[in-house]
Every structure is written in C-alpha cells, then in structure tokens.
Amino acid sequence: MILKPISRRTMLKGLGVTIALPFLEAMSPALSLAGGGLRRARQYPRRMAFLYVPNGVNMRAWTPAQEGANFELTPVLSPLHRVRDDIVVMSGLTCDKARPNGDGPGDHARAMAAFLTATQARKTHGADIRAGVSADQVAAQRVGNRTRFPSLEIGCEGGRTVGNCDSGYSCAYSSTISWRTETTPLPKEINPRGLFDRLFASQVRGEALQTQARRQRYNQSILDFVADDATALRTRIGANDQRRLDEYMSSIRDIERHVVMPTEGEEGDEPPIARPVGIPGDYGEHLRLMGDLLALAFQGDLTRIATFVLANDGSNRSYRSIGIPEGHHDISHHGRNPEKLTKLRRINHFHVKAFAHLVERLKGIREGDGTLLDNCMVVYGAAISDGNRHNHDELPIILAGKGGGTIRTGRHVRYPRETPLANLYVSMLERMDVPVDSFGDSTGRLGSLT
Length: 450
Prior knowledge:
- It is a single chain.
- The chain is α/β, with parallel strands linked by helices.
- It folds into 2 domains: about 110 residues, no CATH class; about 325 residues, Alkaline Phosphatase, subunit A, CATH 3.40.720.
- Helix content is about 30%, strand content about 15%.
- It contains 11 helices and 19 strands.
- Strands 7-12-5-17-18-6-19 form a 7-stranded mixed beta sheet, with helices on both faces. Strands 1-2 form a two-stranded antiparallel ribbon.
- Helix 7 packs antiparallel against helix 8 and helix 8 runs parallel beside helix 10.
C-alpha cells in the first residue's frame, strides 16, 4: 500500500485539546531526483534552550583537568556520564556586564539580567528597569512564527517583578533571564500542570476550560479526547511512524499522570509550604517534570526556543532531600570552609543531575536517522562562577547537542580569559538561521565549535 505524505501541520484534535505531532517519516517530501540519484530529503529544525543555575559552583569540583576529547568528568559533572559524548564543557567564558562596572553591589540580580542579554542592567528598584533583548528573544522574533509558541519561559521558582530584591536592583532582574525588549522581562511558568495545559489545550478558550473540568470530574486523559483522530492517523502512516506516535503518546500520558498527581512535600519540611496545585513538593521531581515538558515541546515542534531557570540567583532554598538543610545562598558564601564546599558540591551535583535528565530525554527521542538532541543546542550554566567571590569570569558553562551536525561534542574546550559569553550566543543564533553581526558585548563568533 502506498501511503500519501501528510502535512507537517497535522495535529490530533478533540474537544478542548490540540496535540501537535512529532516529526514523522510521512511528513518528509516524497522521493526526489537529485544529483542523478534518488534520495529522501529530510530536514529537521534546530532548537535551543538555556538553563540557568544560581549562586555559582564549586569550581574545583566542576572543571575537568584535561582539555580536548580525552577529558574526564569531575565529581560534579558525573551525572552526565551517559551523554558525555554529546556535550562540550566550556571554560574561560566571561559575562562582563554582570560585573559592577561602577554600580556597586547587586551581583546576583546583575548576573540573571546579563546572562542572556550581555547588557548592563540599569540599577533601579523602580519602574524604570532596563536591560537588553535576550538571545532567546532575538531568535524568537525572527523564527518564532514557525511554531505555536515563539518561545517558552519556564522555571521552578517564582519571583516578584516589583520591589527591591538585591542591593537596589528591582526584583524583575532577579526573576527571569528572558527579555522581550529592553524594558520587558518575560515571566516564567513554574507550575507543571499549567505548562502541560498550555501546551496541549485548544486555542478555543471555552472548550479548553470545559475539557479541563471534564478531565478532573471523570479522571480522563487528554488522549481520550483525541482517540478518534489518533486511530484515523494510524491508517495513514507506516509501521515506523506508528511506533514513534505510540511512544510520543505514551510519554504524554506518563507526564500527565505525574502532573495531575504531584508528589507531596519533602519529609521534614517545617513549616509546610503552601504550593499551587500541580507543583510537586519535591524539588527534584519538579525539575524533572519541567524538563520532560520542555522535551515534549521540542519533540512536537511546539516551540524551538526555551529558557529554564532552575532557581533564581540569590536563592536560599534548602536541600533537605540530599541532607542539606541550610540555604543555598548561605552555603555559596563558603569562605573556603571545607564543610560548606562539600555541601556546595552536592548541590551542584543535584542541579547537574536535573540537566542530565533533560539531555538524556532529548537523546532518547528518535528524529530521522539521529536523535532530537542532535538537532538541539542546550546551554547550562550561570553568570557567577564562585559564589563566595561573586566573580563573573571563568564561568561554568556546558553546551549539549550537536546543533544539527554543526557542533563537535565530547570535548572540554578552554577559551582565552575574558572571552565573552555573548560570542557563544552569536554562534548559536547563526545556527538558528538568525545571523547577527554582534550581540551585547560580543567580539565575534566563538571558535572551536566545529
């Protein structure tokens, strides 16, 4: 039986539900004559995401001793062992605009504001905030119209947008890394249930609300509402695509189950913390769920651009689940105390484990002859290196994914001191088909990526 190609925009629809599909073989152009022979033309979009961690890291436990392809993962980076060949550990990069540059204290707020903008934030806690357009939004403004969501901004810690949060800097600087304009920071979604509903809800608002109520009343899955569409689609696609569709639907069902019934709070939490319905009490579970939802959004081509703030800079969250009741920010001011450095290393390891989960998830999704990760560029890092010194050079930065085959991974690359972090963004934007001559304080493209 000859199957007809289906449109890339094909979706599964039901009352109040719209589910975008992953890339299927049936969406590829028919066999075409090229260069004297037949070939199947397949092109998959590139995606990019930026994950931010607060308060710097224990750099001695972070930085690999060896450069090049023969580097060994350090204790902090050990959760990445299954994807070691899919990452580039980058040393030597600097975020100069997170430095005071005459503005005095406020390094945590400046770090978040400058991480993706490479711009000096105006020191104010009033309404006259100003930073710069962030790299993710530069891309979203150019290619965001190709997907349902131009970009996604997610996180695991809320934050105010007004008031003084860090030595005279507005809380707006401390709650997001994504800026649509110089004066418009983008709020992040921290509720997995809210994000899940946003990704898969119909754009007809009344229908979406009706379906949500029905799902809760009768304990139904969103997949129940698109069952007829899914059955019809299976008759139009081949065996490989049917298997890929089943895997995708199973992932949605599994994540939905966790989103609807989040875990309880961590044992020993005192006093109990009030959380919106849908936010897990366990921070590790919260991180994993948001990472899984980000992977689904990339897989279904709902967006190609995302930011994920694991916690706001300056966060003093405790980590009881790994035996650390003290606040993260307090521990980051370690004063070279060995006990505090050990605890900081364990917190850093915890965050890297969440990053590794996302990278492994992306690698586990087939796309064409490769994986979804092969077509991604996922940056993990911070704009503070050592939280005790509040320095903004020698930053802890990792790039995961091959950027559609344009990045040579499996290496530790050391760049000359003071190389702008913004040079990495110029290189990434170019790979997203958004070429820019410069960005922020960049001095050119970042070398040694290919």
